[in-house]
Amino acid sequence: MSTETKKVKTVKWGAEPKLGWVEAMYLPAIASGLMTALKHAFSGKTTTRQYPDVEPVIPANYRGVHRLNRDEAGRVKCVACYMCQTACPANCIEIIAAPAPKDDPHWKDRDKFPETFTIDELRCIYCGMCEEACPVDAIELTSVYDLTGMSRQEMIFDKEKLLAVFDETINSGRDPIRTNRGALGPASEEASTAKQGPPPPGRGRHG
Amino acid sequence: MYDFLQQIWPTLWPTLAAIGVILAFVPVLGLYMTFIERKLAAYVQDRLGPNRVGPFGLLQAIADAIKLFLKEQVIPDHVFKLLYFIAPTLSLMTAMFALVVMPFGPVPTDYTSGFRYIVAPGIDIGIMMMIAISSLSAYGIILGGWASNNKYSLYGAIRSCAQFISYEIPLGLSIIGIVVAAGSLNIEHIVAAQGGDFWNWNIFWQPLALIVFFTSALAETNRLPFDLPECEQELVGGFHTEYGGIKFVLFFLAEYTHVVTVSFLTALLFFGGWHFPGLSGPVDAGLGGMLLRTFVLVAKVSMVVAFIMLLRWALPRFRFDQLMGLAWKGLIPLGLVNLVCVAVVFTFDLPKHLLSFTAVFLFVASLISARNLQSTINMPRSAGRPKAGSILSEVTV
To answer: N or C terminus: which one in chain A shows less Cβ crowding within 10 Å?
Structure first.
């Protein structure tokens, strides 16, 4: 009995809206529907993105494929401090450090350098924590979004590949070396992009 | 034998040529109508549509055809094989057969010899034959649904059957008025009766007949506001669920052939066919005049086709009881009223443009229908049913 009273309280009946004689004729509704269809047909505006032909504009703070930055001398900036490997929540970074050759004047400013530096791009969740953790701005996420490969092995990037990503992206204009020691980190770039307002609804972060 | 051939050749070659034209154009037209429909749908939905194959995607239709023709022929185990294969063929055959009496260019009423834009000129039962043949196309759908041995296909077929039977009646009724005015069932005569002035087009004195005709013709083609036999949300694919590849193409082509037929009929019966103000003189005077008239007719037909395609993206589908209600409670009484008015006007020799006021009956019908709908809405379904007017109201018992 108690359940029945509960039912009465919660159930809502929807009543059909009144149908006037104009609506019963169908024709005005058909005309307005056709007008809507025609308006869209001749508006000339399309929301289709012709992706392979026209590449989307990637916002500056997009987190794509990693790269290892080079310094002015062309060496890898990384000092093999393991900060990124420690910070990585997906455990996709693996570094093997080697002592820097002390007698070589080329390497005398540091103690260690990465002998190997591998990132499993398939394991990575592209959170950008490595970038935040790096004390020498060596690792960065670029705006390269269309990473593909034919095998899993191919998607494990070693040091040379990551440096190659740097060489490819540094002159593209979209991926300058963004963080500087003492300056604000990449998260502060939210502030500059925030001025542009939020991304259009339903299109994600891809702009 | 040779003598006999030589004797009938003057009447044989125009027929063969016309058959050739129809057989060549209808499949290509059907293919390109799918392309045009996809493009139009895309524009209505603010998309671009197919644009990868060829310039503006123009070769998309060819690519689709190649793909469909090369598809593996899958024959489900549970089908009734004979009817399964006959059904699509029958469907297309009846659809194409209806084109026999349909002029696709100017045809003079005093047919003598030479090429005419029609397979069988001077057939005195023209329009009746067309309707008779096109109603046969229900067989293709019903056989297909039955042979598929699948409940969804059968539902589609049953719906199609009911729909065809119901909408044949208003389709026939709406045409009778025009036939009475022209004094002939011959389509060439009906078009010739609309010649001369702009106001002689049947639409201007039979608007009600046009509405009834066009609505029921749309239902005959199984196109969107009435595509209950194949509505994919309820019936998977309806009668062609079990069909793929070339067999599906035949069904598809039959549907588009129906659209072409209906568009031609609408243009010929209501929009003056190949007549246009300013185009005067005998219709087969010179090649230029004939081509111009063909162009006029094709332009009118294209407008109707575009309108049918646009309707697809503007209107939601009818519910089945609404579909039946529209035919039996709406279109058939309207068709009868129209027929009575035509009879009265022609019996008492009144000016025929008086008939344009038959459109008023549409208002009357809608008034009655609105009254009936109100009473059904207000009929208490249960004790807790609220009064109409509030979209959501809490139940108080």
So the answer is: N
**ipTM value for the complex:** 0.73
A18 touches chain B (CB under 8 A): yes
Q: Hey, are the CB atoms on A40 and B45 less than 8 Å from each other?
A: yes
Over residues B236-258, the pLDDT tens digits come to 777 778 887 888 888 888 888 88
**Structural domains for chain A:** 66-182 (3.30.70.3270)
Q: Do B373 and A46 touch (CB under 8 A)?
A: no
Contacts of B397 in chain A (CB under 8 A): 8
A15 and chain B in contact, CB less than 8 A: yes
Is B5 a member of any domain? no
Within 8 A of A33 by CB-CB distance, chain B residues are 314-315
**Do the beta carbons of residue A85 and residue A138 sit within 8 Å?**
no
Are residues B303 and B240 part of one domain? yes
Q: Which residue among B315, B365, B390 places its CB closest to the CB of A33?
A: B315
Q: Which domain covers residue B59, as residue numbers?
A: 10-70
| A112-120 vs A93-99, strand pairing mode | antiparallel
Q: A–B: how many Cβ contacts below 8 A?
A: 97
Identify the CA nearest to B290 among candidates B301, B279, B305, B303: B279
By Cβ distance, the residue of B44, B388, B391 closest to A41 is B44
Q: Which residues contact A61 (CB under 8 A, 6 or more apart)?
A: A186, A189, A190, A193
Measured in degrees and rounded to the nearest 5, phi and psi for residue A114 equal -75, 120
> In the structure encoding, which two tokens stand for residue B50, read together?
């197919």
**Residues B137, B65 within the same domain:** no
Please indicate, yes or no, if residue B210 is contained in any of the structural domains.
yes
Q: Is there a single domain that holds both residue B36 and residue B123?
A: no
Same domain, B103 and B34: no
Residue range A69-83, pLDDT digits in tens: 888 778 888 888 888
B27 with B86, same domain: the answer is no
Question: Is the CB of A7 inside 8 Å of chain B's CB atoms?
Answer: no
Q: Worst-scoring range by mean pLDDT, A20-29, A197-206, B124-133, B244-253?
A: A197-206
